[in-house]
Amino acid sequence: MKATDAEQLALEERAAILKALAHPSRLMVVDELSRGERCVCELTELVGADMSTVSKHLSVLRDAGIVDHDKRGVKVFYRLRVPCVLNFFTCIEAIRKEKGRRALIADKER
Amino acid sequence: MKATDAEQLALEERAAILKALAHPSRLMVVDELSRGERCVCELTELVGADMSTVSKHLSVLRDAGIVDHDKRGVKVFYRLRVPCVLNFFTCIEAIRKEKGRRALIADKER
DNA sequence: GGATTACTTGGTATAATCGCCAAGTATAAG
DNA sequence: CTTATACTTGGCGATTATACCAAGTAATCC
Fold first, then answer.
1. How many CA within 13 A on the CB side of residue B61?
2. Chain D footprint bases within 7 A of protein beta carbons
3. What percent of chain B clears pLDDT 90, i.e. is strictly above it?
4. Could you write out the three-class secondary structure of B25-50?
């Protein structure tokens, strides 16, 4: 059975959301924001990259609908808009552990 | 606070797992595999791309530890190794709906 | 053995992503 | 009004991803 145009679009949108999360720096940001809102300067410190780089990462998360932001004074504060993304981490850790276990077994068989 | 090397590695591994899922065709495959194992030929039909392309997508999912495979006769069957990835979809749909709602509000304000 | 089916892998062209620098905007402070 | 701080955006080179074709392997059939 082939996918319809609407189904294809839905798949692309879902993939875009996952892609937005699929970067070490962006994961670091999401994790930090799970503990409360942060300004770009704080996140820049944390990530350890150029502020322009971090700003672009944040725009990716924004476009995906994962974070929200507002300006107060000179600072721009970001916060998690969809806390459910944090649930991903449990499953991802399970996959990591499985992979580690499997790599070990492969080693033994050699 | 800066991240240690181990933390950085963990972030990269987590991002790699998400990246493996972050493609429309691969999401389609994962969804299909949630209903049981499938051979590459069935998945190729479903995705509607060259078999070599689908095979490479499957190798990405395999390397990420998301699917398993075994050969029986001429056919290679793939199945989900970590069903918990299916939980992602609920949250992703919530984000999609939120985005739709927000786009509507932005329209009204214009 | 020869042909067929089901995959995988290498090569390659094209497109997307990433990170920095430089330049621009906006608010606040002196 | 000038300066400084906090961001964002444009642009550029470098890396990475994606899709197809062609060629190779592996199991089955005749």
1. 29
2. 4-11, 17-23, 26-28
3. 81
4. HHHHHHHHHCCCCEEHHHHHHHHCCC
How far is the CA of A51 from the CAs of A41, A44, A71, A88, in angstroms? 7, 6, 16, 27
CA–CA distance, B54 with B38 (Å, rounded to integer): 13
The full set of domain ranges for chain B reads 5-82
Nucleotide nearest to B56 (CA to C1'): C8
Chain centre to alpha carbon of residue A56? 13
Distance B49 CA to C10 C1' (A): 19
∠A26-A30-A31 over CA atoms, to 5°? 115
Number of Cβ atoms within 10 Å of the Cβ of B71 = 9
Chain C: positions less than 7 Å from a protein CB are: 5-10, 17-23, 26-28
Q: Which residues contact A82 (CB under 8 A, 6 or more apart)?
A: A65, A66, B91, B94, B95, B98
Q: Which two tokens stand for residue A75?
A: 């600072």
Query: What is the residue whose two structure tokens read 């580690």?
Result: A100
Q: Which two tokens stand for residue B18?
A: 């998400």
**Contact (Cβ atoms closer than 8 angstroms) between residue B102 and residue B47:** no
The CATH topology of domain B5-82 is: Arc Repressor Mutant, subunit A (1.10.10)
Q: Which long-range contacts (CB under 8 A, 24 or more apart) does B43-50 make?
A: B43/B78, B46/A1, B46/A2, B46/A3, B48/A2, B48/A3, B49/B25
Q: What pLDDT digit, counting tens, does each position of B18-72 carry?
A: 999 999 999 999 999 999 999 999 999 999 999 999 999 999 999 999 999 999 9
